[in-house]
Amino acid sequence: LKGAGCVAPILVVLLGVCYWMSIHVCLIGRLGSAKDCIVGLAWLVFLLMLLMPWGRILGVPGIPAVFFPLDTLFTYSSVDQMCREDWLYYHARFVLYPLLAFITAGVADVRFGRCYRDAMRRIHQRIELQVAPGTN
Length: 136
What we know:
Layout: H1 4-28, H2 34-51, H3 54-58, H4 70-74, H5 84-130
Helix pairs in contact: 1-2, 2-5
């Protein structure tokens, strides 16, 4: 798929817009949990840096990316016959780099989840305070 490499950065940018809007909701609504949203947005920017195809953008073929053409994977036909440096580069590029992207996405999601839980807790506390006593 030729367009698969650009879909993930576009989705991360859209998710970043959602995080940005939630930061504004927390700040305008005085919910006080914007710190976790901001940290989640910072992790999301780091994830965007990982997902960008820098080799194609800069024109340098040696820069690794999370998404790569299948031909690149087939250039390493036999892992057993590789020297130590090629073996380390192979595993760092095709295993650790995508794993780092997944871990970064998970950390951003956890931080945003904390922001959401804190905001919902504070909203429910405000709603309970507005109910008149003895009306239950």
